[in-house]
Design a protein that fits this description.
Length: about 375
Amino acid sequence: MTQKKLLLLSVSAGAGHMRAAEAVRSYASAPNLEVTAMHLDVMNFVTPQLRKLYTDFYLALVNKTPTLWGYLYQITDEAKPEGWMHRLRRCLERLSTKRLLRKIAEFQPDAIICTHFLPAGVLSQLIATGRLECPVWVQVTDFDLHRMWVHEHMAGYFAANEEVAFRMRDQGIAAQTIHVTGIPIMPAFSQQLDRGVCARELGLDPKKTTFLLMGGGEGLGRLHAVAARLLGLEENFQLIVLAGKNAAALAALQELATLHPGRLWPQGLTDKVERLMACADLVVTKPGGLTTSECLAMGLPMIVNAPIPGQEERNSNFLLEQGVALKAFDRATLEYRIRYLLEHPAKLADMRTKAKALGRRHAARQVLETIFT
């Protein structure tokens, strides 16, 4: 039997689209699948002008003028598919993606999965004109459905939950092509990790309440200032703070840790986030679709940090409605939420139970099985 070839197309405008594609690719060699998978960042195969629009311009809006981004998110969602705005966008995309189309033709995939709406839109136009016969699938990477994800001629759609699937049907997508799988996450977040083992690796007390802080800005401020405020509480808990690539933040946190021995564990860039999560009772994080899906898969409740208008705001709304998250928009609010949960452990336990029930640990494998079995 000839091995099937899968092409994954994502866009490096934010990390979530890329991580979802990598999650699917990581399962391609699983038993009973044995798929040859290639993952491409579409931005490496487009004109510089389109790259600036979809990466530089997008990131600048999100980071510097989130309110403006929220406005654009809303008006593009409400705009008619055949209106001038979307027709102009599709024309620009078609003229700017010729290198991508050559790469697709060279690979000759048996199926394509798009984890961003840009390649889905381009390929939809090719299928409509008979220039592409390969089935194209779309993986939506948020707990929301923006109109730009919806295209004709797609073989199928993968939704994060039943509500997103309902909205897909409401947008005219055929019900039989919609599959509720969840958002694909890496295999590491699907493991049954031992809290005691992971805690001892860091020198943590596995029996003590532990919080994981995965991001400061956009409302909470600098990481070491957030950590210092929380450590000012008299309650007995441990705090892990993930600084990532921010060397200055890591240095400041390490200095702060010397003032709070046995309470603060600063972490730099790591590929073991799942082991940090295994030690935690709650995560403070931005509500991106991938990060929150990882938390849910591990049964972790959240305090979501100042979501940007648009997809993050709608992600946080879903999490709040499901009872698995609280929201903080500044340090005072965060302190209040932490105090409340420490004083009401039953509430934290209830959030954890609900998070575990919502988690979809095997979304990536389910996506592949839907396509190839």
